[in-house]
Amino acid sequence: MSLANYMEFFIDPNRCIGCQSCVQACSECDTHKGHSMIHLEYANRSFSVQTFPVVCMHCQSPTCAEVCPADAIKKSEDGVVHTARKARCIACGNCVIACPFGVPELKPELEIMMKCDMCYDRTSVGKRPMCATVCPSQALFFGTREEIEKLRPRSRPVNQFQFGLHTITTKVKMMLPKDTQENHIDVTAALEDQPIDKSFSLEDLINNF
Amino acid sequence: MATILGDPTKLVEQFGPNLAFNRGQQLATAIEPDCLVKTHCCFCGQQCGIQLKVKDNVVIGFEPREDFPFNHGMLCPKGVKRYLQGAHPDRLLTAYRRSNSPSGFESISYNEAIKIVAQEINRIQSQYGKDAFGVLSGASLTTEKAYLMGKFARTCLKTPYIDYNGRLCMVSAGAANKKAFGIDRAANPWSDIIGTEVVWISGANVAECAPITTNYVWQAREHGAKIIVVDPRITPIARTADIFIPIKPGRDIALFNGILHLMIEKDWLDHEFIKNNTVGFEEVAKHVKEWTPKKTAEITGVAEKIIYQAAEVWGKAKSSFLLHARGIEHHSHGVENVLGAIQIVLASGRIGRKNCGYATITGQGNGQGGREHGQKCDQLPGARDISNPEHREYIAKVWDVKPDEIPMAGVDAYELIRKIDRGEIKGLLSLCFNPKVSLPDSNFVTRALEKLEFYVVIDFFLNESAHHADIVLPGSLHEEDEGVVTQIEGRVIKINKAVEPPGEARQDWKIIQDIAKELGREKGFTFNSPKEIFEELKLASKGGVADYSGITYEKIEAQNGVFWPCPSPEHLGTLRLFETGSYNPVAKGAGPFYFPDGKARFNVSKYRPPMEDIDQEYPIILTTGRVVSQFLSGTQTRRIGPLVNQYPEPQVEIHKVLAEKLNIKDGELITVESRRGSCTLKAHVITTIRPDTIFIAYHWPGQKSANLLTIAAQDPISKIPEYKVCAVRIKKTQ
Description:
Strand order of the largest sheet of chain A: 6-1-8-7-9
Number of strands of chain A: 9
Mean pLDDT of chain B: 97
Strand content of chain B: 15-25%
Mean pLDDT of chain A: 93
Strand order of the largest sheet of chain B: 5-4-18-17-16-6-7
Oligomer: heterodimer
Number of helices of chain A: 8
Shape of chain B: globular
Helix content of chain A: 10-25%
Order of helices and strands of chain A: EHEEHHEEHHEHEEEHH
Strand content of chain A: 15-25%
Largest sheet of chain A: 5 strands, mixed
Low-confidence stretches of chain B: none
Radius of gyration of chain B: 25 Å
Largest interface: A-B, 47 and 61 residues
Low-confidence stretches of chain A: none
Shape of chain A: globular
């Protein structure tokens, strides 16, 4: 059993409402019950309610696997990068440090690294991942290319991320506004950006602020 | 005197709230459940479809229910973790009575408890009269239970004094909808949001309080809709709005009047619709003449330009969907706020068609069904009026009593508490209501509860009000019973039983019938199942506005819900109200609205400031609301570990500008004081709220309760309390 090649995972942080349904549902997944593999963070809560859900991006050349001294992280033919194999993982934490998206988590009490495997137990048998199924804003979406094009006419998917000189290509796609020119997201350049909502500021909208 | 007897620490040790995390079979992987039960979430008015995984009579997890058309598998964190309320260490497994034991309660047999309850009801009613006993029930109950509670109070206890916690939730919208449309139900299904040109959201923190609705709003935007959000806080749904109006709490009527003023000035009106389908426009038009953008801006505390912008986007649209919630309803002028919202809908003519809609976002699980069938103080089943002789006669026939045996209207839930305080009501039965946490000015509520001679609480956990109880009866969780509820869209759906109640706990309707039997007034309370209650309820609703008579459990299952009214077996239900040419039993074909002439009513909405405006002594506005991980008074959600960890305790959201003025830093403890009480909480310094306003979530009891501060001012018509505005001051805690 494997993940059908026409099913894709899309993230649109613009839709995220920070409700943590994904985080809560992830820990209900049968292969890692009790442990959530999703990170959900505020960009900067002082200034905005903007949040970002982070699931494993499933890199084409997964850095986590490349730096693993025990060869515990495997990518299957369908492109899914799996969580550490229990028999091999030495819980060294190399992957945790190396992952450009900050996805893997070291579980010292279990002496293992755990990470999102796109709910392989579900997705390999034709179900949707837990997080994308429950997500009330559908910031996390799992479906076909035709579905996303029909449902999100204002956006388009991108799967290249620039870290300095290094380009990372991922299986999971990020939605960008359709009218943007770039075909990649420059992560390093955006590191210092503040999440100030460009469209309005309270000072501008309130009398005698 | 129902003062708390036990040692608070012992009380918490024994009854919680303790936090449940998944354990045992709930944590085991690859376990094969005995069955998956298709049902719905137990929390908010959206009533998302969910499947519960059951093993050995315990709910061990959930599976998304993707076939239910409202949510297609989507769930908020409460829905995801709701199963942890089952097999909970705090679960009441027996009846309890007050005692001198360390916790203040001792376990007694169920039968003995029922005997005491009946004896005390008899004692109080024979000593002080029938009216000395009151009942408080709730809108999280199935419609069958809600119906039974109204019947029980009126025909078994023969008291007029029953009301419910929908009083704190949907009544302003309900009253205004009746005044304007003659019926109280969401006018449209949520699917009408997708494809509309403008979504106007007033006073609704959609992302946290009705999270699944978010996807409808975002999907509308994908297809070109403009989103207008009115809220004193930049909520997650407001963050990316096309137009955001950061209104000063309590000023919504002014805004709606100002918008209508501009619609009239620019002639953004549907004259045909106004002429053919409405009454009263001229008077309203005259009234809003004074609501110039300048005056509107002054009162609402927002920049004049956004009033123009909003009016233009709303005014020029060809289709629209207006949504509102407690943000405009929790006011001493909540009904008028809602009437203001309705007037800009009626003036646009955009109602009663696909993608032209209007709805309140009902808050509680059965907020809709729970307000239709007679647990409201002034109402009989089928949304009938208790003061209408014909309505009384019809229900009397169904109940097999004489019309004059049905008591006249009682009083709203807060007035019922005042009656207790004044010594007029001596005994109380409450089910699905935690007044000590949920009512405003909780110091007063506590004082009143302490005066009760006898208080019996039915609940599955010992809620904070139950600390005052003389007898506690172990009731049932949502997953332990079946019945119908009516969700946010007016869709009647079926709750299915997944497990049996544990220990001596039993279904609430059985408990009520046991009390009736012990009182020797069993007649009318011998139902063997919720289905039998539903059959009587159908008959009771027949011919009323909320007509369920054509609904069956089977039809609900087959159609994934039935939208009421559904007046006959062959009727499929009413997806959308007010469609041109539609028939209703009030207009009888004269028009689509529920008045004899078939026309909707414009109502003049006069602006009044909140009951307690800010002054020099109390210079800051307090507004209260929910967070996504907690629900209402928290009886359930404060016991679910992962939800508590998500937002462990209330904080004071305060703008950086105000914080700096008061020299308050993020994370510091501050004391918020009103004229009624004070509470000390952590400051959360942010820039996403008006600088003249602070926000506290209300789900917590005791010294962390926002309701120590809130005011018991009420709307004169709906009697909803003014949770959304009162005056406070802040002190740094030494």
